[in-house]
């Protein structure tokens, strides 16, 4: 019997991808003994406005940010759909080939029970949560109850002490405060943003997935 690769599935807008994204992927890779982590940029998020950068730009920035990390893979499965994709739809496809662990932030796990077919998701994948100092984990009774029935647990990744976010980066660029983002972005990503004049216009984007 051929063993499936154990992968982490890390979805998001990556608008733009920043060093905290990459650090989290590396932490998950090591902490969970995964074979690979797949970064899955969304086409357009449910409960969210359309990402500001184009799909091409977001993919290019991800490629630049992971150019030296062979175990971090860019998976464009949702972008190829060319429509809003729900996590359950992506998982159903990936689990045919991989043993999947989805990587979530504490803000995402706190509202996980609002996701489409969330119970089916936890039946089919493992869950790892990245703790954030500014967003305490607050699991719902429904989620805990369902996990117990399935004899599953949530893996906690090490606490991430960072205030970096894509929205903060976009705001700094819009306000022409580029010096503030020097330590938030891979140099290649930062140069790509500059050359392509990305994020010069500000548009409000909700924080929910």
Automatic annotation (TrEMBL):
Reactions catalysed according to its record: nicotinate beta-D-ribonucleotide + ATP + H(+) = deamido-NAD(+) + diphosphate
PANTHER family: NICOTINATE-NUCLEOTIDE ADENYLYLTRANSFERASE-RELATED, PHOSPHOPANTETHEINE ADENYLYLTRANSFERASE
Class in the EC hierarchy, top level: transferase
InterPro entries, alphabetized: Cyt_trans-like, NadD/NMNAT, Rossmann-like_a/b/a_fold
Annotated family: Belongs to the NadD family.
Record carries keyword Transferase: yes
Keyword Endoplasmic reticulum assigned: no
Keyword field: ATP-binding, NAD, Nucleotide-binding, Nucleotidyltransferase, Pyridine nucleotide biosynthesis, Transferase
Pfam families found in the cross-reference section: CTP_transf_like
Pathway stated in the Swiss-Prot or TrEMBL entry: Cofactor biosynthesis; NAD(+) biosynthesis; deamido-NAD(+) from nicotinate D-ribonucleotide: step 1/1
Protein function: Catalyzes the reversible adenylation of nicotinate mononucleotide (NaMN) to nicotinic acid adenine dinucleotide (NaAD).
Gene Ontology process terms (BP): NAD+ biosynthetic process
Protein name: Probable nicotinate-nucleotide adenylyltransferase
EC identifiers of the protein: 2.7.7.18
Domain Cytidyltransferase-like: 9-171
HAMAP family: NaMN_adenylyltr (MF_00244)
Gene that specifies this protein: nadD
GO terms of molecular function: ATP binding; nicotinate-nucleotide adenylyltransferase activity
């Amino acid at each position: 019997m051929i063993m499936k690769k154990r992968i982490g599935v890390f979805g998001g807008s990556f608008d733009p991808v920043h060093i905290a994204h990459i650090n989290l992927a590396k932490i998950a890779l090591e902490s969970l003994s995964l074979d690979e982590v797949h970064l899955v940029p969304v086409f357009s998020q449910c409960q969210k406005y359309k990402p500001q950068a184009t799909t091409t730009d977001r993919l290019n920035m991800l490629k630049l940010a992971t150019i030296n990390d062979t175990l971090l893979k860019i998976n464009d499965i949702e972008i190829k759909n060319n429509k809003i994709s729900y996590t359950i739809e992506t998982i159903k496809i990936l689990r045919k080939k991989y043993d999947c662990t989805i990587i979530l932030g504490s803000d995402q796990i706190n509202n996980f029970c609002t996701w489409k077919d969330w119970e089916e998701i936890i039946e089919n994948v493992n869950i790892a949560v990245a703790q954030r100092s500014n967003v305490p984990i607050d699991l719902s009774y429904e989620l805990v109850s369902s996990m117990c029935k399935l004899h599953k647990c949530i893996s906690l990744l090490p606490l991430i002490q960072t205030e970096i976010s894509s929205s903060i980066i976009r705001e700094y660029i819009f306000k022409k405060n580029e010096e503030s983002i020097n330590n938030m972005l891979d140099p290649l990503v930062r140069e790509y943003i500059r050359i392509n004049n990305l994020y010069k216009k500000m548009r409000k984007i909700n924080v929910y997935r």
